[in-house]
Amino acid sequence: MILDKNMQTILTTLDSILSAAQDFRFPLDLLDILLVSYLLYKGVKIIRETRAGQLVKGIILMLVMYAFAQLLELHTITWLLNKIFELGIIAIIVVFQPELRRTLEKVGRTKVTTLTPWSHGDSAIRSNSVWAQPIEILCEAVQRLSKTATGALIVIERQTKLGEQIATGVMVDAIPSVELIGNIFFKNSPLHDGAMIMRDGKILAAACFLPKPDKEEDIDKNLGSRHRASLGISEVSDSVTIVVSEETGGISFAVNGRLIRNLSIEKLRQTLQFYLMPETTEEAKEKKTGFWKGKKK
Known about the structure:
YojJ-like (1, 57% helix
């Protein structure tokens, strides 16, 4: 009797699998499954990297409590948990608004054009022509500031626009020069206390306020406000930031939430060229676009 029931269960399961296989629309359903799997993977990754991980643990605990309350017919607890679940989505949006905003900003910074090989060459040539001279001016200015231990905070805008931060400062809109940068960060200058923001090879604004980093408590206590501000802006944008320490004259570079310290001028020049001046040689293009032509690299 038991054997017959088990056999019936197996046959029912096989029948369900075959029925699902017959209704499977290839490749649309496969694409649907892959997209959902990718979204779940990214969601888990985001949760692991933020304090939302604790939230997930709390939700799981509440679901277990709800199951026990239902099983034991604890009506008051069941009613209370139902009300909590009804308001849960709104509460999550309110509490985790900073994390949601950063996630959406990260998604928004992904440009479709970066996936197309034919768009890279023109943008690279334009970046080279725009930033070749300003990079040399920046390196010379930073070298002078470093020698005199004059504190400086220079943010270079890339794809993500920094209008929100620019609005907090004073508009300059000037062609960069070593003397102008030196005057901006001179300790008695009214513009020295804040960030200088550059766009398309020009100095756009000075004395700008930058956001604080997400996990400020985890940052080295020896880092000052300029270094912290550089990390903060690098977390919410794809900008690159140069910091000159007022205490030691050391040169640091912030990008993608990371801080590289104690750079030489030559290393700073190479780093700026790497981020601001994409390769345009035929060999570089072949490396990046070869797979579109079916070539093995």
